[in-house]
Amino acid sequence: MNSTQNGFMAKFQALLEKYVVPVATKISQQKHLAAVRDGLTVLVPVTIIGGFAILLAQPPVSASMQPTNILFQFLCTWRDWAAANIGVLLTPYNLTIGAIAVYVTLGVAYQLCKTYKMDPISNLISTLLVFLCVSGVPQGFVSGEATVNAIPLTNLGASGMFTAILVAISVVEINHFFVKKNIVIKMPASVPPNVAAPFHLLIPAVVNVVLFIGLNMLSSQLFGADIPGLIYALFQPLISATGSLPSILLINVLMTTFWFFGVHGANMVGVVTGPLTLVGLTANATAYAAGKDLPYIFAGAVNSVYGGWISYFAVVVVILLFCKSSQARSIAKIASVPAFFNINEPLIFGLPTVLNPFTLITFLICNNLNFTIVYFLMESNFLGKFFVSMPFTVPGPLQAWLSSMDPKSILVWAALLVLDVIIALPFIKAYDKQLLATENVEEMSAE
């Protein structure tokens, strides 16, 4: 880069480091937002189990398919077996994704307890109790000739997630306040800690239960909806707004910019996007199980699968096929296998892409163009939306297919990879030329 470019980049870097990065860092490290982010992260195994359960119970096979060949015979056998055992097969789904808010409550409460160094078990039990008091109120159902009480899943699924987050934070904060002010039941020193701990939080637990039951009754009287219904109605516009194309493109720009400075972009914006993509994923899974149209595009890992995971791999492909710099090629060879499994840190810090304007421009163009194309393909129902969560190391094309059960997603992923290679080629070649010049100077100096 010439001196003018160096001067611009230095000013741009100083500007972001002064005004943007500190604010984003504070947001990502804010204890409640961090508890939400980390609390949702531990739910990944739960969503994976639920996702595979719904795939088994609802195979992507039409009712009209006939066993005319070996593949169709397998699919038709799967379809008939699933129909005969759908009650059993949907049990893991109903108790994971169908009741995801329960796990959100526990995950967020646990992470916030760790921050305050409070006893986790007692806090988790009291938090779950309070959440069930407002979202899991038992109702009477007729079963045969008897009436039984059962907890409906209505407010325990995606629609109850925001209630779960707010209840978890509120209950732990109230517990922490009582403990800090020493408004607790103290047991004699001779009582073992595991016996004394539950009594230690008994007073705040009673306060929380009475408070939230009262608020639930008040909400029903004033607004005609309980707390979960009211909170979901308030957050619904936010979900819709954040799932719009301009919002997602802005998120991509922010993530790419943070990575440019070596700051983990996903962690920075994940405190905001994590709950929204999980809500979208669970709502889509619920719709899929009911045989309805999937409502959300911004769901699960869709932004990563069709965004950065393609563009990073495209840079590796460009370097291996078209570049001559020994530095770039050696890093690309090392990074190629991890990048195929969506692990991009070797490329980020080895090439590096940090403070590299050539890769910054590449990623800004590719990530946003990729998702714009995918957004319109999904909006037109040409491409299936995500409703299954996969481990993040599942390769991109396979993850795109398994997350949506749409085989066209593999072709779209491959086409976007080719497009990204074409876009990245001139920028990475320019960077390669710069690296070659540096390597030639070093070789001459060594001689």
Helix content range: over 70%
Low-confidence stretches: none
- The end-to-end span amounts to 26 Å
Shape category: globular
Number of strands: 2
Estimated radius of gyration: 26 Å
Share in β-strands: under 5%
Provide the domain count. Answer: 3
Major sheet attributes: 2 strands, antiparallel
Number of continuous helical runs: 20
Strand order of the largest sheet: 1-2
Q: How are helices and strands ordered from N to C?
A: HHHHHHHEEHHHHHHHHHHHHH
Class by SSE composition: mainly alpha
Mean pLDDT: 86
Function: The phosphoenolpyruvate-dependent sugar phosphotransferase system (PTS), a major carbohydrate active -transport system, catalyzes the phosphorylation of incoming sugar substrates concomitant with their translocation across the cell membrane.
Domain PTS EIIC type-3: 16-427
Transmembrane segments: 40-61, 81-109, 121-141, 161-179, 199-218, 238-261, 268-290, 296-323, 358-378, 410-428
Protein name: Permease IIC component
